[in-house]
Amino acid sequence: MPRLMLTDGTWNVLSKVMYLSGRIYNKPNHRKTLEGILYKMRTGIPWRDLPSDFGRWSAIYRRFNLWSKKGILNELFRALSRDADMDWVFIDGSIVRAHQHSCGARTADNESIGKSRGGNSTKIHLAVDSGGLPVYYELSCGNTHDIVHAESLVANCPTSNMVVADKGYDSEKLRAFVRNNNATPVIPRKGNSLVGNE
Q1: pLDDT tens digits for 170-190?
Q2: pTM of this prediction exceeds 0.70
Q3: Using CA atoms, how far apart are residues 140 and 112, in angstroms rounded to an integer?
Q4: Is residue 197 part of a domain?
């Protein structure tokens, strides 16, 4: 059997969040299904290559889509982020290459896919707690600069003492925004900054 990620204590917390929403009902195979989803996300393997110990790959894939559309996975994320260690908050952005067939179809929804020299890409703007666990995220087109989502990341995180970012976030406006949120900005200045180091 593949290595599992959920302890009994963790599953008890997650199952309460899932079932209290009233949008899914208690089934004994939900734990294995969630383990299968986590295994796929951790390893990056295709759905069809999921070990059969988790159940049929097609059933796990359908459940993943259903829980995503119902917002169950977002509820789990929000419930887990409430227990974060918010002494420090780290913010950054990371580009994810989008598959060549991921865009082009007409849709009214924002797909958060942008064109750049590297091709189609999406950017994940992420805020993590002192232990490196995610507490808030936003998606944008891959050609969007990190600073565009910086204030939103800080504003939507629980209150923290320090906000840490890299030189890509060098902005006096952002530093002032962080201070107005009762936190200390820890953001290095770019080499060509006229202000000096902080």
Answers
A1: 989 999 999 999 999 999 888
A2: yes
A3: 5
A4: no
